[in-house]
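Severity: low
Component: inverse-folding endpoint
Summary: output formatting inconsistent between runs
Steps to reproduce: submit the following structure tokens with default settings.
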């Protein structure tokens, strides 16, 4: 049995794959060693696991560099984060090839083919952006609160559209296409409008960048993973996510895809 741990910029995920079942936990801690130890301990306690049944800890993410060769006496196998993202996303989606988008504190974009996993793009927009703008503009820290506000929001009081500029479509761009995020915000915009606009900003930028990367890599399927997939689901529910290229897939356990990818990458190594 292998435990996968993804030590990210704001949260740390731990997973164990047990006969087809996936057990997951998440903790918040600033120190990467404390985060890894805490996540492993929480996973053992929550799932009733025995450390004697764990063969190794597969660690990935920026904080994994701080780990020693063992954790609680278990060998630590460090997995390249882009490999973990690619393996986790494609395995959860049941794909041999795809563009995998990891939505964390920032956003990483990885192209996966049977012969190669390659980091092809990314952006600083992500969960850190969402949290920072929400706190600064709205005084809101909870994503649940932000979603509740956004459900009552109206983007027409914040975002500038093609219709606003041209009075109708431009070429193949529908009139409702965003021309400038926050480009029309006025004093009439409510906090609910701003909440929706913040989420829309991140979803649109990441989606457009992902589509461009998919086209450049010759990929058709775009697999969305990471904690911020939650706002993509929200925007789908609000009927604000509608792109014509490729297929956006959010698989089950997408929140934990990188930790799952680390565990599966370690399992493929001959010594485990």
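Observed output (run 2 of 3):
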């Amino acid at each position: 049995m292998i435990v996968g741990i993804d030590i990210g910029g704001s949260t740390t995920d731990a997973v164990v794959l047990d006969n087809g079942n996936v057990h997951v936990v998440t903790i918040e801690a600033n120190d990467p060693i404390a985060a890894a130890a805490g996540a492993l301990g929480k996973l053992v306690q929550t799932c009733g696991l025995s450390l004697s049944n764990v063969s190794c800890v597969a660690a990935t993410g920026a904080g994994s560099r701080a780990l020693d060769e063992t954790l609680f006496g278990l060998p630590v196998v460090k997995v390249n984060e882009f490999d973990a993202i690619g393996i986790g996303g494609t395995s959860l989606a049941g794909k041999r090839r795809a563009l995998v988008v990891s939505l964390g504190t920032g956003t990483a974009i990885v192209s996966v083919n049977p012969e190669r996993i390659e980091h092809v793009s990314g952006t600083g927009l992500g969960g850190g952006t969402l949290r920072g703008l929400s706190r600064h503009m709205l005084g809101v820290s909870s994503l649940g609160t932000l979603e509740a506000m956004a459900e009552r929001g109206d983007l027409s009081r914040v975002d500038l559209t093609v219709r606003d500029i041209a009075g109708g479509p431009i070429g193949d761009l529908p009139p409702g296409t965003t021309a400038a995020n926050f480009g029309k915000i006025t004093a009439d915009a409510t906090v609910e409008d701003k909440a929706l606009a913040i989420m829309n900003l991140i979803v649109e930028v990441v989606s457009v960048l992902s589509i461009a990367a998919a086209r450049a890599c010759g990929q058709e399927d775009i697999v969305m993973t990471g904690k911020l997939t939650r706002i993509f689901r929200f925007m789908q529910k609000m009927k604000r996510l509608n792109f014509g290229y490729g297929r956006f897939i959010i698989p089950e356990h997408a929140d934990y895809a990188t930790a799952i990818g680390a565990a599966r990458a370690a399992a493929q190594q001959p010594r485990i």
